[in-house]
Amino acid sequence: MLVVRRVSESDLEPLYTLIGQSELGLTSLTISKQKLLDRIEQSVFAFSREVAKPEGQPYVFVMEDLQADKLVGTAAIYSKVGGFEPFYSYRIKNSIHESTELEVHKEIQVLHLNAEHNGPTEIGSLFLAPDYWGAGLGRVLSLTRFLFMAEFSNRFETEVIAEMRGVVQPDGKSAFWSAIGSHFFQIDFPRAETLTSQSKKFIADLMPKHPIYIPLLAKAAQDVIGRVHRNTEPAKALLEKEGFEFRNFVDIFDGGPTLHCERSQIRAVRDSRHGEVAEVVEQLPGPGDWVISNALLDFRCCRGPIEWNESGAVIDRATATGLRLQPGDPLRTVELRPPTKGNR
Question: Which entry of 117, 210, 229, 274 is annotated as an active-site residue?
């Protein structure tokens, strides 16, 4: 069985080994072992305390293959971005240029640097070991975060964003970075993305403050603005089906899109159901196309079957064991995939 749970300090070594398999461009996973330990310790502290409001705490989750006794995936929620270190992005705006004498009216897209000090919640750091791709496991890992948000909404902002990985070549080259950032930072893209996970001060020091006219950039750079890496397309499609949308914000380094959604309008938050375990049975019929969590701060989540009756939820033995649930315990669940029209 595969269970998603909150991270613990003992996960440091296997988690560091796991994220070492991640591809270039996953900025939040390009970190040192010490930085990862810091993030884990902050997450453990965040899960362990009562929280009145989001203050930037990271909530880190790991997916564990219980049978193989190994970590196979990870994902995180950052309760708030901005604050002491602003959250930087480019916002695409239209600039109107008009001449009545020449009868010219033209709208030109322009990049404006945006520094957010009081930002939204961010989801990110999602990675699944390549030999576990398929079978909906990435979807389970992603939706786990939304069930946690639904259960503990006071810990998160009302708006949620997801920075999507932009187009980066296997050799580490980024057309967007080459067109803009490289002229001001004088370092290559891999080095820049490593630095941003450590500090953002160099962005404030060096990033150009004036608007950048997109038509003046090389065509290769224009072509990747707002586009995602080919391996990120499934994650983008999943989030769009959950209600996220592109609102013309892109990453300042690789030009990848940032998706937005109101927390209450995320499908897995809005349509999730909270209840209590009424009964544990040996088996339930059906394919088990539900994501089920234990609704506790000692958070655990998995994929499995579930039925509801007047007394509450009926789950099978494997789910109860994986989530450490027994009759009377709280749980929250949502369908793995959005139901098609006429199918609910």
Answer: 229
267-283 pLDDT per residue, tens: 999 999 999 999 999 99
- The answer to whether 6 and 47 are in contact (CB under 8 A) is yes
For β-strands 257-262 and 312-316, DSSP reports them as unpaired
Q: Which pTM does this prediction carry?
A: 0.91
Contact 234, 173 (CB under 8 A): no
The verdict on whether 183 is a catalytic residue reads no
What is the pLDDT, as a whole number, of residue 191?
77
State how far the Cα of 322 lies from the Cα of 235, in Å rounded to an integer. 26
The CA distances from residue 36 to 30, 155, 180, 191, 201, in Å, are 9, 22, 30, 18, 20
Backbone torsion region of residue 93, taken as left when φ is above 0, otherwise alpha when ψ lies between -120 and 50, otherwise beta: beta
Q: Domain total for the chain?
A: 2
CA 156: distance to chain centroid?
A: 14
Which of residues 214, 233, 268 is at a domain's end? Answer: 268
Range of the domain at 138: 2-91+113-268
- Rg (alpha carbons) of the chain, rounded to whole number: 22
Give the pLDDT confidence of 195-233 residue by residue, as tens digits.
666 666 778 777 888 999 999 999 999 999 999 999 899
Question: Exposed/middle/buried for 173, CB within 10 Å: 0-12, 13-18, 19+?
Answer: middle
